Amino acid sequence: MARPFNFSAGPAALPEEVLRQAAEEMLDWHGAGMSVMEMSHRGKEFTSIAAQAEADLRELLAVPDNYKILFMQGGAIAENAIIPMNLLDDRKTADYVVTGTWSAKSFKEAQKYCAPHLAAGSPTGPYLAVPKFTTEPADAVSGAPTFQLSADPAYLFICTNETIDGVEFHELPDLAALGRPDLPLVADMSSHIMSRPIDVSRYGLIFGGAQKNIGPAGLTLVIVRDDLLDRALPFCPSAFEFKTVAANGSMYNTPPTYGIYIAGLVFQWLKRQGGLAVIEARNIAKAELLYGCLDASEFYTTRVEKPFRSRMNVPFFLKDESLNEAFLAGAKDAGLLQLKGHKSVGGMRASIYNAMPLEGVQALVGYLKEFERKHG
Ligand SMILES: *Cc1c(COP(=O)(O)O)cnc(C)c1O
User: Fold this and answer.
1) Which residues of 42-67 are buried (b: 16+ CB within 10 A; e: fewer)?
2) In angstroms, what is the span from residue 43 Cα to ligand 1's centroid?
3) Range name among 144-158, 170-184, 242-256 with the lowest pLDDT average
4) Is the full-model pTM beyond 0.85?
5) Are 290 and 191 spatial neighbours (Cβ–Cβ below 8 Å)?
6) Of 29, 68, 95, 102, catalytic
7) Ligand 1: which residue has its CA nearest to atom 14?
8) Best residue among 80, 168, 190, 213 to mutate for probing ligand 1, ranked by most atoms within 8 Å of CB
9) Which structural domains are found in the chain, ordered by start?
10) What is the pLDDT of residues 71-123, one digit of tens each?
11) How far is the CA of 190 from the centre of ligand 1 (A)?
């Protein structure tokens, strides 16, 4: 029987092929006589799994040689503390762009370790766009620029896809044009990493929790440029110190072994699809289909400004919110799961990560039209 389509924002759907392969290999991985969960992380079986996962990730994202790939734990929220502890060095500040709920949290957490500077955006929202990357006066009344870097920040932090608000960066700030070519750009990519090709060399550090687009919760990816490994504060816990984790090949302590294994299967699946350019084209087609349907309707609305709409997370609203419960119940009956919006935003949210096939979005669009026809 076909499985329903799962629109969860995270932990999110995984490719069915990957789940089937994991099921087949559950009791006996490649003749090892044990499950991946039961293996020593230092044994030759598991070290080959981890090395392959890392090599495939490096190939898919074209990660340059002067970047380390780390498999860590604690999720993206822990990275909000781990990053300042590792990158501040003797600097007193770091700059943050706040474009949604997640970067607002990152900005707040950094206040435990330094006096972070709000370079652009707002700690309270509403989150409907990415600010312009310009130091020109943007506000005719106050003359305030939209984007203002502090004098000597340790890094500039952005969240390139705001999972809750549905705001995505489709362009990066040009740090050279802003007069800071050497400022390390740090990006929380939890909810769109692997959804499109990226130029890793434009970043100092990229991180993301696995449970949106890569694998099960419990694994966090960090991709960090070598020259940033020497800046940790003395009290940074060893297990969270990038330099220590890197020097030990992500095995300073026991890594999330099963999560790394599943992530590795997802990377192999991505390679079989044709890599990230093919995946990106598919993601664009899915997003265009869904936004197109919402835009064509008077019954549904969206709020995020069009150039900043996320391809991964699509928040939308029924104009008549008294129909929300009926909408969700009908969706579930139609095999469309977890469409309820985040409680801070309300309404609905369809997360259409890599693992969501076009057929899933077609089914959702069919249901949207059908529900409107019945209740509009
Ligand atoms: C889900 C998410 C987080 C939080 O991740 P945890 O694993 O719960 O720590 C942070 N940032 C973004 C962009 C996310 O999507």
Assistant:
1) eeebbeebbebbbebbbebbebeeeb
2) 31
3) 144-158
4) yes
5) no
6) 102
7) 190
8) 190
9) 17-273 (3.40.640.10), 275-375 (3.90.1150.10)
10) 999 999 999 999 999 999 999 999 999 999 999 999 999 999 999 999 999 98
11) 6
